Amino acid sequence: MRSRFESDRQLTARMLVTMFLLGLVYVAFVAALIALLDSLTLVIVIAAGLLGAQYWFSDRIALYAMRGRLVTPEEQPRLHGIVDRLCAGADMPKPQVAVSEMDLPNAFATGRNADHAVVCVTTGLMRRLETDELEGVLAHELSHVAHRDVAVITVASFLGVLAGLTVRVAFYSQLFGGGRRDQNTAALFAAVMAVSALVYVVSFLLIRALSRYRELAADRAAALLTGRPSALASALTKISGDVARIPTRDLRTAQAFNAFFFAPALRPGSAVAVLFSTHPSLERRLEALAEISARLSGDTR
């Protein structure tokens, strides 16, 4: 799909490299497990089926998990109006539009491609933002769809879960399934767990690097499409400030979707936010938007 969103060759290259490296890692990982353990075939087949389901039905799964529902233009004329304008300006198909009845101010896009995509916003976000700020957030989410990174991050994130699930099932099947429990067996499983830990760490670093860059790319594309980077910066500032006032229980519920959110469901400044966030820091995003604003205004100082 081609759109008027500014193409980002660095993002495309990073997505290709990330998926290629993850593919190599997991092919080697599964091959090693099959060679070491003879009880994994069914597990791998089931896991592959789950991956396929995640890819084909990611939009429905995400909506269900976030208590979102599709809305019509009659139900949400303001929201549909903004999406209509942005899609017309970007020359891209209009995704389905959904609303989640959550006070957490956030938005996300999901789906395997532009023809099977959903953009969802929370009622907390709509209540807090002005129209131009909401437009910036929606342009950010639409750029994820246009750049196809939604599908890539969906698959990449699921592969980490797949590795953990495969090793866990293998471990418990051997632990409770009988068989020899000698020093060779202990050494074998120590090796399996060490390899799995290495795979997880490599996957974690690759996914975090891609995720942080894709958020900067989406900010940049949205700012250039709308021509109002200041509105997007204002939305970011409001959301980050209000997330700190959301109850911890609600934040924990939403954290599984941090890789897809416009802003992470983490308290700003916490050690967890710095080390494990799927997004660049607020300061980094605001700095990048300020540079775009200066460029658009012709200030080259």
UniProtKB/TrEMBL annotation:
Q: Where do the TM regions start and end?
A: 12-34, 40-57, 150-171, 186-207
Give the cofactor binding note.
Answer: Binds 1 zinc ion per subunit.
| Record key words, sorted | Cell membrane, Hydrolase, Membrane, Metal-binding, Metalloprotease, Protease, Transmembrane, Transmembrane helix, Zinc
Residue ranges annotated for the Peptidase M48 domain, each copy included: 73-292
Q: Gene3D superfamilies given for it?
A: Metalloproteases ('zincins'), catalytic domain
Task: Keyword check for DNA-binding, yes or no.
Answer: no
Q: Which residues form the active site?
A: 141
Q: What is its EC number?
A: 3.4.24.-
The entry's Zn(2+)-binding residues are 140, 144, 215
Pfam families to which the protein is assigned, alphabetical: Peptidase_M48
Q: Which family does it belong to?
A: Belongs to the peptidase M48B family.
PANTHER family on file: PROTEASE HTPX, PROTEASE HTPX HOMOLOG
Q: What is this protein called?
A: Protease HtpX homolog
Organism this protein belongs to: Streptomyces macrosporus
Q: Gene encoding this chain? A: htpX_1
